[in-house]
From TrEMBL:
Origin superkingdom: Bacteria
Record protein name field: Transposase
Length: 63
């Protein structure tokens, strides 16, 4: 059972580790739930954009 869960944990912890170490942490200091949702959404968007660039640079040869 732990082997199955560990596959998911490893992938999710990588995302949270990146947010905490490279994007200023996951502790959100905003007033209101709407602003907190926007901040988390922006952090997710930035993570996905950085991941996309990283994956594209692996696939495409440097020109």
């Amino acid at each position: 059972m732990n082997h199955r869960k560990s596959k998911v944990r490893a992938r999710v912890e990588h995302v949270f580790g990146s947010m905490e170490n490279e994007q200023g942490g996951i502790f959100i200091r905003t007033i209101g739930l709407a602003r907190a949702n926007v901040k988390v959404g922006m952090m997710n968007l930035v993570y996905n954009m950085r991941r996309f660039v990283s994956l594209c640079s692996r696939i495409a040869p440097a020109v």
